[in-house]
Amino acid sequence: MQTVELVHELKPYKSLSNEELRTRINAVREDLDERLLILGHHYQQDEVIELADLRGDSYLLSQMAADSEGCRVIAFCGVHFMAETADILANRPEKLTERNGERVQVILPDMAAGCSMADMAAIDQIENAWDEMGEVLETSDITPVTYINSAASLKAFVGRHGGIVCTSSNAKAAIKWAFAKTSRVMFFPDQHLGRNTALGMEITNDQMPVWDPHADELGGNTEAELENSKVILWKGHCSVHQMFRPEHVAMFRKKHPGIQILVHPECPQDVFELADEYGSTGKIIRTVKEAPPGSKWAIGTELHLVNRLKHEHPEQEIHFLSPVVCMCATMYRIDLAHLAWSLENYRDGTPTNIIEVDEDTAKWSLVALERMLEVR
Ligand code: 13P
Ligand code: SF4
User: Fold this and answer.
1) 123 in any annotated domain
2) Confidence of residue 148 (pLDDT cuts 50, 70, 90)
């Protein structure tokens, strides 16, 4: 592969102050004007999120990418699967026709900004599981549902097999949609979101075997367990949300009578069930915003978002639901230095860190993503 020499190397940006980096990023914004859209996920660090034109949870950011009008480049301050999704939605066939074939380029400022949960399900593992499951069950009676936190290849698998993508804000509607088609669902890669959502739909734990891709056979299940299944979960989780524990909930309830526990549905079942409220990052923000002054919260989601809520809502008492630091180390990789470096390279003719999903994968992923955008 031919490598193009970049106009700007990354190293010098690392020694610039935040003030200098902000000035340079704002200069690129002026130069590119409405051609540039900076999107930021709520878990980004403050310096970065402050520069985003639009911020949101996974669902809203997908919608923003799908609806973007004048822009020709999206700098995605989030993680890899989000940038892939933006590329697929912003460059879907009708949008390309409107723009006479001109693509929107999607930049992920640091290519190492992945998602450890998404990495827990590789396409060959999913395909092997599907084939092996087919030895015991009719796969024509299973609808695959992938959480948006997955590689585009998994979304394409789901699209090809009549399934749907969901986010944490529409998981229940997506599973309901799937059950209208078939009597079983295969849900990946987050076992906790799948389990917490299905438990709220009167599906029991013994109807939700977990498929372990590293087990010798049948994902570590017996034939009888699979035959009894309604939702086949995948052995994946978020390393950040997995760290919240029931004893943290007990400790806050004891120390702060009247406190409300608010968690992301990626938390394990034992924490999720103890919570008063739950929701996507967008829903968590709305819940706090709408609460009366003096409300007390212990929030179980990524640290940067909880700290921001604390800062923005001094009229409420907000705690982080863990004594340990639970932060998304990969989201944190996006910093002002990477953002300035990638934007200046784009403006000056050597675009770098471009996320472009191949045509066939994009086509099938889009089928499953469009269903996601329709189902609420
Ligand atoms: P949201 O869908 O709430 O944005 O969550 C994304 C995510 O990665 C949570 O860990
Ligand atoms: Fe992935 Fe968890 Fe980070 Fe979300 S918080 S991007 S699920 S590792």
Assistant:
1) yes
2) very high
Instruction: Please state, in angstroms and rounded to a whole number, the distance separating the CA atoms of residues 16 and 336.
Output: 9
Cβ within 8 Å of residue 257, ≥6 positions away: none
Say whether 98 sits in a helix, a strand or coil.
helix
Q: Is the pLDDT of residue 192 over 90?
A: yes
Q: How many Å apart are CA 128 and CA 165, to the nearest integer?
A: 20
pLDDT bracket for residue 376 (50, 70, 90): confident
340 close to ligand 2 (CB < 6 Angstrom) = no
372, part of any domain? no
The answer to whether position 303 is within a domain reads: yes
On the 0-12 / 13-18 / 19+ scale of CB atoms within 10 A, 290 is: exposed
In a shared domain, residues 313 and 342: no
Provide the domain count of the chain: 3
Which residues surround ligand 1 with Cβ inside 6 Å?
A: 57-58, 149, 167-168, 238, 264, 266, 280-281
